C-alpha cells in the first residue's frame, strides 16, 4: 500500500474512532470497517497512538480518541475566530443536567466544536470533532436554519437523506417543512431520528458574520417530555445570550 493510501486509511480509522467515540474499538473491528488487513490496522493504530490521536488504556484491547483530538478542536475553535464559549456550554450542561453541544457545518455534515456532558452518569456521549448528518439531528436542522436561504436550499438538494431509524426524515419536501416549523417556533427537534432512545433540541447561534453555528441539548428520550421542552428551549436561549455577549466582547 502506497504512502498516500496509507494516509487515507489512517484518516478513515481516525474518523471511525470519532464516530464511535462513546466506546472503544478493537483492531479487528477497525480493520473490517476501513477494509484493511488486521496487521495494517494494528500498525496504523500504533502510529495514531504514538502521535496521541488515539489512545489505549493499559490492559485494554480497545482504542479510543486521544488528547490530540481535543487540541485540534481547540485550534479549530481559535482559527474560526470564535471566543472561548466553553464556560457558557458548561453552564448549560450543569443547569439542565444533559449533554450540551456547540456545532457548525463543514461540507454536508455537522461537526462538534465542543461537548460538555451533564453531571449525571446516564447521559448522551459525544466528543469534539465528531461528525454527523444534518437532516435527522437537532444540531443539523438548527444549522440548516442558520444558513442563508439560497445556501440552505443548495445544501438540502445535495443531501442524501439516509434512513437511520423509523423516525428519520427521508423526503426533501418533508425536510423543508420540518425546517420551516423549526424556524417558526425558534428551535429544532430530533425525536429518535438518528439514534433510538435519544431526543435533542437545538437553536441556531449568530456568533459572527460568516459561519453557521448551533447550540444543542441531547438527552435520553424518557427525560425529554413535552412539558420539559419549553424549559430546555429557554435554557438554550439564555445560553445564546451569554455566548453572543462573549462573542461581542472578544471582537472589541
Give a written overview of the molecule.
- With 252 residues, the chain is of the alpha+beta class.
- It folds into two domains: 3-65, Arc Repressor Mutant, subunit A (Orthogonal Bundle), CATH 1.10.10.10; 70-250, GAF domain (Beta-Lactamase).
- The chain has nine helices and eight strands.
- The strands form two sheets. It has a six-stranded antiparallel β-sheet. A two-stranded antiparallel ribbon has the order 1-2.
- Strand 6 (188-191) and strand 7 form a beta hairpin.
- It is globular.
- The mean pLDDT is 86.
- This is IclR family transcriptional regulator.
Keywords, separated by commas or semicolons:
single chain, 252 residues, alpha+beta, Arc Repressor Mutant, subunit A, Beta-Lactamase, six-stranded antiparallel beta sheet, two-stranded antiparallel ribbon, 8 strands, globular, DNA-binding transcription factor activity, transcription, GAF-like_dom_sf, transcription regulation
